[in-house]
């Protein structure tokens, strides 16, 4: 069915992959990408699809109620895919204010805009709120997060995401807003900002720089290839039951040290050797642990498999090889992010309107 989708945060890592998926696989959907272009937003990542007839970009803040009202009215938005957020846990520890502003106030402002615009005519409309498994806290050696697991966020980031989940759910129960929530595990793949573990290790490893592993490297994450996540979100928009949440995970629990060692070995196989002749594992450096570092995340994705027939298609071995290949083939992308020149792209494209 044709849709007009407001994608918030479409210039971030997952948003870029999601916009690309929609333009490729949902040709009767119009896509409006609303992004503030914070440090994490990279408009250049969508340069090759920027003139697609179904795509438009709006630079703006989800906290801007007037802008949202105009967009909903003028574009007749019937679907929201809400990715925009401050997403990096380490930054939330050193500077939590932006996380409260965007993740809590921004989500509230967006929910209000949808409620006002869809009032009395929400049939067929969908508000998909993208959230994280981090709202459930930290697991011990066994067990999995299910949709029934009690919320127990432990970082400013996860607390802000938990708040936004509660708001989204409250708008369903109180106002009947057609809300859906997804709680996903760690994504990896193309276009991820190189502050996150996998692209950071790849970038440092390529340049022979130290590879920081927090604490003992025994923390566990459940890795999901970003394309699989994006396909799950489309499935939930199209078939999800209103008011419900769906856990999305990759069934790929790995310790951080395992992931870093694997990346070292893949770089040794696929890239030029280090000038020292040493294997890249020699660059691994155990550093001071993250404050409040959650030990283990693991998703039980049984509900989305059973109810919506969604399973991840990409194994960790396939996904990590594809990811290494992408970063090796797109070194310019990483270089423009690390030297900051990606932030000029919007100015160059839009000039005085920037
Ligand atoms: P990201 O940090 O790469 O991108 C965030 C995007 O949001 C950027 O383009 C940024 O410019 C934009 N943005 C930030 N503040 C904004 C504002 N006030 N108004 C408009 N745009 C704004 O994040 P990501 O990794 O792509 O994550 C996307 C969503 O998925 C987030 O909500 C995150 O919590 C959630 N999530 C991420 C992961 C993961 O592993 N990356 C896993 C589970 C859930
Ligand atoms: O679980 C989903 C979450 O995954 C998302 O909600 C977040 O937005 C996303 O950033 C991610 O959070 P993490 O904190 O798990 O991702 P990060 O890449 O920052 O770290 C992954 C693990 O690697 C974590 O245990 C910390 C560790 N780490 C990270 C960095 C950046 C290191 O050991 N060294 C590093 O340099």
TrEMBL record:
Organism: Candidatus Electronema aureum
GO molecular function (one): dTDP-glucose 4,6-dehydratase activity
Any single Pfam family the record assigns to this protein: GDP_Man_Dehyd
This protein's record includes keyword Lyase: yes
SUPFAM superfamilies: NAD(P)-binding Rossmann-fold domains
Protein name, per record: dTDP-glucose 4,6-dehydratase
GO biological process: nucleotide-sugar metabolic process
InterPro entries in alphabetical order: dTDP_Gluc_deHydtase (IPR005888), NAD(P)-bd_dom (IPR016040), NAD(P)-bd_dom_sf (IPR036291)
Cofactor needs: NAD(+)
Family: Belongs to the NAD(P)-dependent epimerase/dehydratase family. dTDP-glucose dehydratase subfamily.
Domain NAD(P)-binding: 6-323
Keywords: Lyase, NAD
């Amino acid at each position: 069915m044709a849709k007009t989708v407001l994608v918030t945060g479409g210039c971030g890592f997952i948003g870029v992959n999601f916009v690309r998926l929609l333009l490729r696989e949902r040709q009767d959907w119009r896509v409006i990408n609303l992004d503030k272009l914070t440090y994490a937003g990279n408009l250049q990542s969508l340069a090759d699809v920027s003139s697609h007839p179904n795509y438009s970009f709006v630079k703006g803040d989800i906290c801007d109620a007037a802008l949202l009202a105009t967009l909903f009215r003028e574009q007749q938005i019937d679907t929201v895919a809400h990715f925009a957020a401050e997403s990096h846990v380490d930054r939330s520890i050193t500077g939590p204010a932006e996380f409260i502003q965007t993740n809590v106030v921004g989500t509230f402002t967006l929910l209000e805009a949808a409620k006002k615009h869809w009032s009395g005519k929400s049939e067929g409309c969908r508000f998909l709120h993208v959230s994280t498994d981090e709202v459930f806290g930290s697991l011990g050696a066994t067990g999995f997060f299910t949709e029934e697991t009690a919320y127990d966020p432990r970082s400013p980031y996860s607390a802000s995401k938990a708040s936004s989940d509660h708001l989204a759910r409250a708008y369903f129960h109180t106002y009947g807003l057609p809300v859906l929530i997804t709680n996903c595990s760690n994504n990896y793949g193309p276009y991820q900002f190189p502050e996150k573990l996998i692209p950071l290790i790849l970038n440092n490893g390529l340049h022979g720089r130290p590879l920081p592993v927090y604490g003992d490297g025994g923390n566990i994450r459940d890795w999901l290839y970003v394309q699989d996540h994006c396909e799950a979100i489309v499935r939930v928009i199209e078939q999800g039951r209103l008011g419900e949440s769906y856990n999305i995970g990759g069934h790929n629990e790995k310790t951080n040290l395992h992931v870093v060692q694997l990346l070292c070995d893949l770089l040794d196989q696929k890239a030029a050797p280090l000038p020292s002749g040493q294997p890249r594992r020699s660059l691994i450096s155990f550093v001071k642990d993250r404050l409040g570092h959650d030990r283990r995340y693991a998703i039980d994705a049984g509900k989305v498999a059973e109810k919506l027939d969604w399973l991840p298609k990409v194994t960790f071995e396939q996904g990590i090889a594809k990811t290494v290949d992408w970063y090796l083939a797109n070194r310019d992308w990483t270089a423009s992010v690390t030297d900051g020149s990606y932030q000029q792209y919007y100015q160059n494209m839009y000039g005085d309107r920037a």
